[in-house]
Structures are given as structure tokens and as C-alpha cells.
Amino acid sequence: MPLSRPSLPSAALLAGTLSAMILLAGCSSAVPVAGLDAEPMSGGTLVYASGDAEPSCLDPHVGGNYPQALLAGQFLETLYTKDAEGKLVPWLAESADPSADGLSWTLKLRDGITFTDGTALDAAAVKANIEHLQDPETTSSTGYLAVKKIKSAKVIAPDTLELAMSAPDNALLESFSMPWVAIESPAGISRGKEENCSAPIGTGPFKVGSWTRQDSVALLRNDGYTRPVADPGHTGPAYLDGIAWKFIPETATRQAALQAGDVHIIDNPQPNAIAAADKSGMLDHLDAPRPGASNRIELNSSKAPFDDARVREAFIRAVNVKGGIDSLFFGTAQRSFSALSSIEPLGYSDAEEFVTDAQTAGRLLDEAGWVDRDAQGYRTKDGKRLSLTFPVSTNQSVPAEQSLFEQIQATAKDAGIEINLNLLDLSSWYGALAANDYNLVSAPYTKVGPGVLRILFHSDSTIPAPSGYFANLSQVKDKKLDALLDEAGTTNDPAKRMELYTKAQKLVLEGHYLLPLYDQQNHFLYSTKLVGVGATTAVSSPTFFDTRFTK
Amino acid sequence: MAVAGASSWRSPKAVRWVLGRIGGAVFVLWAVATAIFFGIRLIPGDPAAAIMGGPGSQASAEALETARRDYGLDRPLVVQYLMLLGRLLRGDLGDSYSLKAPVARVLGELIPGTMLLAVLSLIVAWLLALGLATFSMLNGRIAATVASGLEIAAAAIPHFWLASVLIMLFSNALGWLPPVSTRTPAGLVLPVLTLALPLAGFLGQVMRDSMLQAMSGPFALAARARGESEAGLLARHALRHAALPGINLSGWAFGSLLSGAVVVESIFARPGLGRSLLSAVTVRDVPMVMGIALASALAYVLIMALSDLAERALDPSRSTA
């Protein structure tokens, strides 16, 4: 037989060689790089390829996840948003003022804004949105949590709404900046869930044309758009005729389509592709880390062996994270030493707590009683191996991150700690968490502002939601921390708020409940033919209001 | 063609054959529905949470209760199972948890794309396999050895790998074809090739073997003695022999194409049954998984019946009449 089945290593080698060849070919081909002198023009349809999951409903009030936020940012707008400096600024709202006790807010809206169905944005519309979010039939999760403390809304003038609160909430405006709380046309909502899911009606620079499931959403320019976005490059409607928002789940295909010119911008590229693009100058790169929590590994403190603070610290001292990040992420991810994203102004960072130090790790493990070693070199105590369960969701983790976990596993082994990595699909992964069957876990969470700390570390969050999910995965139950987070969430004094959140973060970091890795990755690669990409919303999703093609 | 004659359809044997086929199909569909209904319940994960936008959603208790009631999940398992069978008997596939739309309607949108992909791939695989087999028959031993090697290699290529190589070659390096499936015919070329090449390798092996047998049989010897040319012998005699095992395998091949569609539709971002199955399983969308499995099973049964018919038509010794 002249040919035999290609063995896996040789197949991988062939694929690797081919991709290297193509990369080189791409670099040498004479495609002109668009410089500042290239002339921008109006019109054209932008083709966006998303690797995030296709939403099951385009109305971000229903459910409420990041893929919905990415899309909704094109056709819905929020009451507040963040400007280029990361400052919270009014958007659809004119102003919002709390009463002295924080139990009531007066919300004023801008004049002259209309939804794409022609109806006006007014106080009654915003009230209808809040009620829609709070209605169990809507099945909202993220947006529901954001407006949970609003007891009732009262229209006191066509452009003025009074919100009665069940408790003070100084994160309300941050909540209002999230796309899951974006404002939709009440007439659109009243069409019913199924219709509103397929084409929500908003005030954004684009509107939903049609949705071909598993293929694309066609977004059309809103010709009546007059209000500028937070940091506008121009006024009036968007330049683009529309956006074809395609769903291409396979990373390699997405990148190939971008290189072939079939699509103009992609999200979720692999780190090596970002590095190659940065180097070659063939593509532009937008790095927009998500707000809220950083990407981190949480240590389950509710059961052995991590119920012992010494073992938690020993684990953190034992593993080498930086080496893995440097080699696997090609300089596209910065090591984090904080519970919060680097774009959160109130984030507190402490590198000292995370210095890799094998000697200290060994001493701590000895003190905790893990002194013996078994035949494989793992530490044991009373004949039991120091073994950790680490369920990993393959749906939420890019290959580079899974490799990082494997490297962490390898360095932990040197310290005598066994890590059992279990690659699971999303549902099984949630199942493992709900069953408390984990010692280590890495879970994403996006929310604007430091209020996310309460969701992740307050003892209230160890109580599972009816779906079985709880967000405090390190299962910290610390009365002192609870008190700090409670007060930080309600104080009217910004300086006091900062002090309280800093104290709370110190407690969390010093307690060794988590191992921060890097910001939640939000990278975009796009054709150099595009200008004006990069204006982002409060949750770092791109907007294409100012985007143009160059001739 | 004996069985295709109009009169034979009224014969008791043919009627029994058709009834047997229908009975078999009903049994297969019932078995698939039952296996999936109980199989999915065994996997951890709350279906109500799946309805509420994924198991990680922090849906309120009221919302989950509403979802349970709306979808009948608050009833005992046996009742739910009987309700399912009742619905299926009425042809009602229910509503998808994740797409918030009737499964039947979604399937209606997805089936044509996947069937087009599968049927085209089957045709291309057939043409490639027959072409290669014929070529090797006419060109001596070395050609036969090379063809056999190519077939074995092709049959062993994993879809995922093949798709990546085809994209790199034809989209990136040469720039001839789009890497993403568009609605143009050009967008179909790479997905069809990805599915057809391994299948062609497999079919080719079988076809060439029976061609070889036919060409060395007593009939061929006699024909040669009558002065029949090799090409003529091949066209009039061996092709039919080669087609029989090919047709026989096509039912099986079609099933493998449907499973291959899971990979191919995901890689080339093509809407279809395979890609939907993957996402439906991930989010525990029970009605959707059920609908896709039933549609695939039905297609499989139909293709098996068709290949059976075609085989009987080509081979009178197996005729029903």
C-alpha cells in the first residue's frame, strides 16, 4: 500500500506548516495598507463575524448574556453609558438624581428621541421597560438583577420618571449603562415575546432587518438617527448602509474568512492570530477588556482541602501563572492581580499576594499536615492524596486558556498537588458547580462597576438561585466582608465608596480565595479598510456609528 | 426493471414489503424518541433552567415555575413521556426551549440545507468513486495500486482536518473559494468536498472490488471471446456490478453524512440540522434534539428503502414480484 492513514502528529505538522505558509504568503502579497490618506466614504455593508453563541432571543431583556449585548449595542441604547475615559455619562437620560436617603430617584429623559417604529421615547416608555424586566414572564436574569431594587416607577411628567427604591443602590446608573437594561419601544414589547425576540425595536443607529437563524442578522441603518453616541465622530445617521452580523462558530474559519476578505471584522480571535496581525500590519486590532470581574480561578473554601487558608495560599504560591500566560497568549493578555477588570476605576491590585514561591508553598503545606508523599510524588495526609477537582467548561474557555490550566496543573504537580481537569460541556459544568463537586473553577461574570464584588463574594450569593446557580463560587462567608460590601453598595459618598471597596478587595485577596489570571478577553480583528471602529459601550462591545470604509 | 413494473405494486408481496417498511419506520421513530427522552433526563441539568436561557441563568423562582408549567415539566416523568408520545402521534414536535419557536417550523427551515449538502455529497462521492474505479480498471496494475492507496487514505481522513486543509488551500492560499458557506453555489464546493472525499474513498474500495470480480467472471470471459472491448465490457457489464454494493452502502453512507454534517456545518458556518444538533445538545434543548433526531431517523429510513428499491431494480434475482 503506497499510502497509509496519516498519523495524528504528522497531520498536525502538515496543518501547522500549511498555516505558516499561508501566513507568510499573506504578508508578502501586495495588498495596500490603508493609511490616513485613504479617503473614507459613506455607504456599504459591514460584515461582522461573531464566534460568540448565536442568541436565542435578540431582546437582551430575555435571559441576558454577552452575545446578546454585542448585538443589542447596535440597535438599542441605554439610559447611561461610559465615555472614552470610562466615565459614566447620561445617554438617553438627561439626568438622574437620588434623594438624600437614596430611596427615590428622579430620572429626566432627553427630548426629541424616537424609536425606529416612530413612537417617542418618554417616561411612560422607560416605565414599561422596567416593568418588562421585572415581569417573570420575560424570564430576564441579568437585567432583572440590575433593576431588582426598583420598587415602582411613576410618570410625573412626559419626560420625568420617579423611581421608588426598596433599598438605596449606588450602582443604579452603572446598571442603567448595561445593554441588558437597554430601552425598547413599548409598542415593540407589546407584540409579544416571540415577535420581540426576533426584532426588538430601539433607538440605536441601526435597526433589525431580518434574522436568518444560524446564519446572520441583517441590521439596517436607522435613517432617522440624530442623537450622537457618547463620543461621536459625527452627527446624524451612521455612515454604513447596514451590518451583516454573521455567526461563524469555528475560530479558524472566522480568521480565514477575514483574511479572504469575506468578512470585515471578527471577534474572539486566537491569541496567535492577534499577535500575527499586530506584527504584520495587515489587520487592525481592538482590545476592549470587559468590565466587572477579571478572569480568575476561584478556590472553593467551603470544603477540604481549601477550607484551610494555608492550603489555599500554598496552592497560589505553588503554581506558575505568568509563564503560561506569556507563552500561550503571545503578549495579548496581561497578568492580573486583582478581583476586578483593569478598566474598573475602583479595582485594587496586589501582586505581592501572588508571588510564586515554592519554598513558602512547601512550608505552608507541611504546617497544614500534608507532609507525606505517595508513590507518584503527591502529598498525602492520613493516607489521602492532596487532590483537587477542576471542572472546565469547554463552551466558555478558548483553547489557549485550557492550555494555561494544563500548565497550572503541571506546576502544581511539582509541589505535590494533584489537579484533575475535567473538560465538560456547559450544562454538565453547571451541574458540577451546583453539586459542590469542585475545588477550583473559572467562571466569567460581566457587570459594570465594582458592584460585581457583592455578587461574587457576599455570603448571600452562596445561596443558589432556583436554577441551582450561585455566583459566590469560592463560597466566601465572611461577616466582615458582607458588611463592607453592603455599605459600599449604598453609600452616597464617592470617597467612602472607594475606601470600602478597597478594604473589601484586600480581604478577598489576602484570604486567598481566588487566583486572578487576566482581564476577560474581548479582542476584535478588522480589515484596515475600515476606519472609525473602536467606540465602545459600557460593556466594551464595539459600535459602528462612526465606521466607514476607505476607498 | 422487474419491480418497477406497475402491476407488481399490487402484488401481495409488494404490499407486504411496503407495510413492513412503514412498520419498521414507526418502530425506529418510537425507539429514537424514547431513547432521547430518557437519555436526556439522565444527564444532569434542569430543563427549566435551559428554557430560561441556560443553566447558569439567575432566573427567579417565579420565572422557573412559569417555565415548568408552560412546558409541562411539573408533571411526573411517565406522564411527560405519554404526553410526548401523544404529541408526536399528532405530528406536533413542540416548541424549542432555546429558539422560542415551534420545532417543526425550525426544522422546515433547516432540513433543505442539510439535505442539499448530503445529497450533493453523495452524488459527488459516487462520481469520484466510479471515476477512480473505472480509471484504475482500464489502466493496469500500477494504476489500481495507486487508486487503492488513494481510496484508503481518503476514507481515513477526519472531516475536521480535511475541512481545515481545504480552507487553507482554496480560500487562503489560492483565493478561489469562500471559506464560509454562502448561499451561492461556490460556497457549497468546500463543504461538499469535505463530506464527499472520505466517502468516495470508502465507496471506491467496494466498487472497485466488485468491478474486478465482474471483469474476471465467466460472463466477461465469454464477452471478451465474442470480441467485446474492455471499455465496452466495463460500461455494459461491470458498472452495474459495481453499482450494487454502492447502492447497498448508500443508506449507511447517508447516515454517516448526517453525522458528518455536525462538523462540516459548524466549520463552514452553514445553517443546518447538524449545527443545530450541536447547539441544542449544549443547551439541553430537549424538543430540538428530539426533532432533529426524528428527522434524521426518518431520512435514514427513507434512504434505506430507496436504496433497497434501487437494488431490487438492478438485480432481478432479488425482485419482490
Automatic annotation (TrEMBL), chain A:
One of its GO terms (biological process) is peptide transport. Keywords: Signal, Transport. PROSITE patterns: PROKAR_LIPOPROTEIN. SUPFAM superfamilies: Periplasmic binding protein-like II. The keyword Lyase does not apply. Residues 1-25 form the signal peptide. It comes from the Bacteria. Its main location: other. GO terms for cellular component: ATP-binding cassette (ABC) transporter complex; cell envelope; periplasmic space. CDD domains: PBP2_NikA_DppA_OppA_like_15 (cd08492). Belongs to the bacterial solute-binding protein 5 family. This is Peptide/nickel transport system substrate-binding protein. It comes from Paeniglutamicibacter cryotolerans. The lineage of its organism: Bacteria, Bacillati, Actinomycetota, Actinomycetes, Micrococcales.
From TrEMBL, chain B:
Belongs to the binding-protein-dependent transport system permease family. One of its GO terms (molecular function) is dipeptide transmembrane transporter activity. It is a multi-pass membrane protein. Gene3D superfamilies: MetI-like. Keywords: Cell membrane, Membrane, Transmembrane, Transmembrane helix, Transport. It is found in: Cell membrane. One of its GO terms (cellular component) is plasma membrane. Residues 111-311 form the ABC transmembrane type-1 domain. The chain crosses the membrane at residues 18-40, 115-138, 150-174, 186-206, 249-268, 288-310. Pfam families: BPD_transp_1, BPD_transp_1_N. InterPro entries: BPD_transp_1_N (IPR045621), MetI-like (IPR000515), MetI-like_sf (IPR035906). This is Peptide/nickel transport system permease protein. PROSITE patterns: ABC_TM1 (PS50928).
